[in-house]
Write a structure and sequence with these properties.
single chain, alpha+beta, Jelly Rolls, 7-stranded antiparallel sheet, globular, binds 2-oxoglutaric acid, binds fe (ii) ion, iron, Fe2OG dioxygenase domain-containing protein, metal-binding
Amino acid sequence: MAAILNLNSHSGEGEGTEFFEKIAKDIQDKGFSINPCALPHMLGESLAGHLHSMPQFNFEQAGIGRESEHSVNNFVRTDDICWITGESDAGRRWLEWNSSLQTFLNRRLFLGLFSFESHFAHYSPGDFYKRHFDAFKGEANRVLSVVVYLNHAWQPDDGGELVIYQNEQDQEGIKVTPSFGTMVVFLSEEFPHEVLPASRDRFSIASWYRVNSSTSEKADPPA
Ligand SMILES: O=C(O)CCC(=O)C(=O)O
Ligand SMILES: [Fe+2]
């Protein structure tokens, strides 16, 4: 019995609705939520295992912009990415876990989250992602950004922090250390953010919930 209790207590804070409720409340109150040691431990380990078992050629140079406007721009970002599909066990469980979070947040905050997309990102030493928004107001695409980190034993002088700015004027920001299991959620249109260069390899998963914009009346191309 004790062993079972023990196992449960190691399953990670992020397992249940209590954690989802904390995210919902943070989003409602502040628009962002920063959670150290939040990713369920087994899920984090299996994602990290999968990530490190993949050959480097599964990763591509990250770009900016969508569809026809998509391009690689080494001034803005220099990381490599690999989209997460349900093909691997770890990937499937990650998508399932986020699907429960999506259901929870839709019930609790009426966000109308419709789809989820997610990629591993590898920042080699010196890589960065300059200050940016994940979505632009009025474009009704990415609504909520979710980032988790898969780096064991990250040290304060390893760098590589995510800096979240409160608004366009904020130059100081809040620094988040990319330690294993830390999970950050924020409104994609509200918070400019950047990734500072690190002195070691930095692994993260960046994800976005989208609303269904296919019914929007946006003229495309614009008149
Ligand atoms: O890895 C991170 O800390 C954030 C990455 C990011 O901002 C992005 O991919 O849009
Ligand atoms: Fe971003």
